[in-house]
Amino acid sequence: MAWTALVFAGIFEMFGVAMINKLHQDRNWQSLTLLILGFGASFVLLAYAMETLAMGTAYAVWTGIGASGGAIIGMLFYNESKDWKRILFIAMVLGAAVGLKLVS
Amino acid sequence: MNSNWVKVIIAAVFEVGWVIGLKHSDSLLDWALTVVAIVISFYVMIMAGRELPVGTVYAVFVGLGTGGTVLAEIVLFNEPFSVAKLVMVGILLAGVIGLKLVTNDTPSEGREA
């Protein structure tokens, strides 16, 4: 159950990042509301998952799913660069962030 | 340096503040400052994405926030120092600098860069 909640927390985070893109595109309250609801749901589910799972593990999985998923959505739907160098550097940043959360 | 990258860094600094706040707050004032830091960091991060690619901004925001928090905990709260942590912060910074170099700072139309 905790793991299911954690995966959904990551999915809502991806959704939140996608809504940042949408907000810049539409500039309306609807997108802002969806953005806040997305991150809000993500944090609630993350907090729930952390009641059972180790904090470092939960944070690492959450960051990994949400931030890499957010970048992939940007490439698929919002014309962000698919340059291999960009993908490599994003992977380095997120890989290091996940690693730090696991060892801390 | 483009002002949008400065915004990402400012957002990450406030992120370090509120992550520490979530962990160590024990008074109403601490909690109030933590909430203010959350709002400022998200606002500045979102604004940085107006001209930079959002996926890049979010990855850098999360990465610098994590790296900064780990370093702050070592310096301020006597968390154990380890070579592994330092190596990962190094990789993280190399990735951020790389992203800065391959990202077109001033896309004229949309966020295609």
Topology:
The complex is a heterodimer of chains A (104) and B (113).
Chain A: H1 2-26, H2 29-52, H3 55-77, H4 84-103
Chain B: H1 3-24, H2 28-48, H3 54-77, H4 83-102
Helix pairs in contact in B: 1-2, 1-3, 3-4
Task: Summarize the structure in short.
With 104 residues, chain A is mainly α. Chain A is built from four helices and no strands.
Could you characterize what this model shows?
The complex is a heterodimer of chains A (104) and B (113). Chain A has 104 residues and is mainly α. Chain A is built from 4 helices and no strands. Chain A has helices at 2-26, 29-52, 55-77, 84-103. In chain A, helix 1 packs antiparallel against helix 2. The model of chain A has no long low-confidence stretch (mean pLDDT 96). Chain B is mainly alpha-helical and 113 residues long. Helices cover 77% and strands 0% of the residues of chain B. Chain B has 4 helices and no strands. Chain B has helices at 3-24, 28-48, 54-77, 83-102. In chain B, helix 1 (3-24) packs antiparallel against helix 2, helix 1 (3-24) crosses helix 3 (54-77) and helix 3 runs antiparallel to helix 4 (83-102). Residues 108-113 of chain B have low confidence and may be disordered. Classes of the chains: A mainly alpha (104), B mainly alpha (113).
Instruction: Let me know the number of strands of chain B.
Output: 0
The tally of beta strands of chain A, per DSSP, is 0
Specify Rg of chain A, calculated over alpha carbons.
14 Å
Large-scale geometry of chain A: flat
- Show unreliable segments of chain B: 108-113
Uncertain stretches of chain A: none
How many strands, what sense, and barrel or not for the largest sheet of chain B?
A: none
Mean pLDDT of chain B: 91
Q: Describe the oligomeric state of these chains in a short phrase.
A: heterodimer
Specify the helix fraction band of chain B: over 70%
Please describe the biggest sheet of chain A, giving its number of strands, its sense, and whether it closes into a barrel: none
Supply the number of helical segments of chain B. 4
> Percent of residues of chain A in helical segments?
over 70%
